[in-house]
Amino acid sequence: MSSYGWGPQDLAAPKARQLREVPAEPGLVLEDVQSGWVGAVVRVEKSGGIHLVSLEDRRGKTKSFPLGFGFLLEGEPVKVVAAAPKARPAGPQRTASGSVRVEGLRAQVAKASRIWVEGKHDAELVEKVWGHDLRVEGIVVEPLHGVDDLAAAVESFGPGPDRKLGILVDHLLPNTKEWRIAEAAMAVPAARGNVLIVGHPYVDVWQAIKPSVIGLDKWPTVPRGTDWKTGILTGLGWPHSTQADIADGWKRLLGSVRTYADLEPSLLGRVEEVIDFLTA
């Protein structure tokens, strides 16, 4: 028998105890019995078909646990359940990007201007957070699947005052290959005043998501020469051997992103800069 009055045998048959059900309201302080982790509820989310509750300890670190049995509330064993949806407040609603939601929105016909990003995952992340804003403005996000021929792509697009391009490049740092590619693209005559190229410092857009969304303090270290996605999945202990594994890992990570607060400022600022440029 544990010091709390119940042991592993009770976890195996929790229904027999008829534990009190407690809604996972933000701020509720819980203890996970198995790990001893104590923290306040910060969110409840669904990942891989499982409802998880994220608990933030007094140092600001978070960990996620499956909802249900195995928690203590002020020393009492309880069953933690999802809180009932709350009525929507009367004030203006916010989108995932933090802007005011336009109710009853019918997406505009797409403008000629475009946001280009390097790949499919970049496009999905931008859509997840800024999708509402982009539909309001009639701006489409398109993946380039690489930027090696960016200058040729810009020239072929034919940018102009009513046909602008905002381009988001991974790992855009001075004296890198990406930096030289961006310089060559901006040297295209039609790019002047009609194209904006910005970038974040990360090798892969996955890294622009805060690791805290999956309960980590920092991303695992990826050995030099190892594909970043494969290295991260390996470090996390997630399946990583096939493209399907990578796709599933991304789906799980993207599903943990709820708002702009889950992204690094170095990405947030650049995307906002591009949107402002295209809508000015």
- For the secondary structure, the number of strands is 11
Terminal-residue CA separation: 67 Å
How many helices? The count is 7
Helix and strand composition category = alpha/beta
Residue-averaged pLDDT: 84
SSE pattern: HEEEEEEEEHEHEHEHHH
Q: What is the radius of gyration computed over CA atoms, rounded to a whole number of angstroms?
A: 23 Å
**Helicity range:** 25-40%
Write the layout of secondary structure elements.
Layout lengths: L7 H5 L7 E4 L5 E4 L5 E10 L2 E7 L5 E5 L1 E6 L2 E6 L32 E4 L2 H18 L2 E4 L6 H8 L7 E5 L7 H10 L8 E5 L28 H9 L6 H13 L9 H15 L1
Parallel strand pairs: 1-7, 8-9, 8-10, 10-11
Antiparallel strand pairs: 2-3, 2-6, 3-4, 4-5, 6-7
Helix pairs in contact: 3-4
Task: List the keywords.
single chain; 280 residues; alpha/beta; four-stranded parallel beta sheet; 7 helices; 11 strands; 28% helix; elongated; disordered N terminus
What does this 3D model show about the protein?
The protein is of the alpha/beta class and 280 residues long. Helix content is 28%, strand content 21%. The strands form two sheets. Strands 1-7-6-2-3-4-5 form a seven-stranded mixed sheet, with no helix packed on it. It has a four-stranded parallel sheet with strand order 9-8-10-11, with helices on both faces. Strand 4 and strand 5 form a beta hairpin. The longest helix is centred in the middle third of the chain and has 18 residues. The N terminus is likely disordered.
Brief write-up:
With 280 residues, the chain is α/β, with parallel strands linked by helices.
